[in-house]
Design a protein that fits this description.
heterodimer, A: alpha/beta, Hypothetical Protein Ychn, Chain: A, 5-stranded parallel beta sheet, two-stranded antiparallel sheet, 5 helices, 7 strands, 26% helix, B: alpha/beta, globular
Chain lengths: 138, 130
């Protein structure tokens, strides 16, 4: 079996805000460990999960360690597809401009920086999820 | 079919572990294979042998341990999640300088790589959570 055939599509569905519960942080820990297994990885952010990607986060007042910088480093782990559900943003009065600029370097185009965040509608996201091999929800 | 099970919630507060147990037991009785059961987030709290629920209630930890013994199940508790929540085996207790361990029979502590491997090896990974 070639490496290409052995690859599975891993999909991490993030549904919770970043600091109220530990799901977001521990989801990231799975993503980072999982990156070593060289699978086809994508993440999605729905419901309050979209708050995980908010720009200018400052967790200092919570007494917890801020971890929002890790999302910006995901490109270095070959994690390049971050789907954000449009409806979840709109319901919360947010737009893509409120989110961190997250990019990856495309080695096929002279390492040009490309955006990792992909805005998708609910029905489009459902189709993407249906196409995955392994879906973990957090 | 070959299943992998992920449990994201602790016992009693959430139904996740009960449902996962019932699914796992039913799948095994139907002749399916359970590649691994992976306990994550508060799910690691399913693996402490110090759980003492009222006598007229189910003892989830015991149910899992018995199922593991009967079917030689691989029950894995995530080490990073376990350390945050005070779930230790004898080795970890010694390494961290703690005065005792609490891991239940049939459970073992290991890394997140075991969850990814389960996703790769199984036909279906099923997540039980909130």
């Amino acid at each position: 079996m070639s490496d290409e055939q052995a690859k599975k599509k891993f999909f991490y569905l993030n549904r919770k805000a970043p600091y109220g519960t530990i799901y977001a942080l521990e989801s990231l820990e799975v993503v980072l460990i999982g990156a070593a297994f060289e699978q086809d990885v994508s993440l999605a952010f729905v419901d309050d999960g979209v708050f995980q990607l908010m720009d200018n986060q400052d967790a200092a007042g919570t007494g917890m360690k801020g971890f929002s910088k890790i999302y910006r480093a995901l490109g270095d782990y070959e994690v390049r597809k971050l789907y954000v559900e449009k409806e979840s943003l709109e319901t919360r009065g947010l737009s893509i401009e409120d989110l961190m600029p997250i990019t990856y370097e495309d080695e096929n185009e002279d390492y040009a920086e490309k955006p990792s965040i992909i805005l998708v509608g609910k029905s489009e996201l459902a189709k993407i999820i249906a196409d995955q091999d392994v879906v973990m929800s957090f | 079919m070959r299943f992998a099970i992920q449990i994201n919630e602790g016992p009693y507060t959430h139904q996740a572990s009960d449902t996962a147990y019932q699914f796992t037991k039913a799948a095994l009785e139907k002749g399916h294979e359970i590649f691994r059961v992976f306990f994550y987030h508060d799910g690691v709290n399913n693996g402490t042998r110090y759980t003492v629920p009222p006598q007229d209630d189910r003892n989830l930890q015991k149910l899992w341990s018995e199922l593991a013994e009967k079917y030689k199940l691989d029950l894995v508790v995530c080490i990073a999640a376990a350390q945050r929540r005070g779930i230790l085996d004898a080795n970890e207790a010694k390494r961290q300088g703690k005065d005792g361990d609490n891991i239940a029979p049939g459970f073992r502590i290991s890394g997140l790589g075991q969850l990814i491997e389960a996703g790769i090896q199984a036909d279906r990974l099923i997540v039980f959570g909130d």
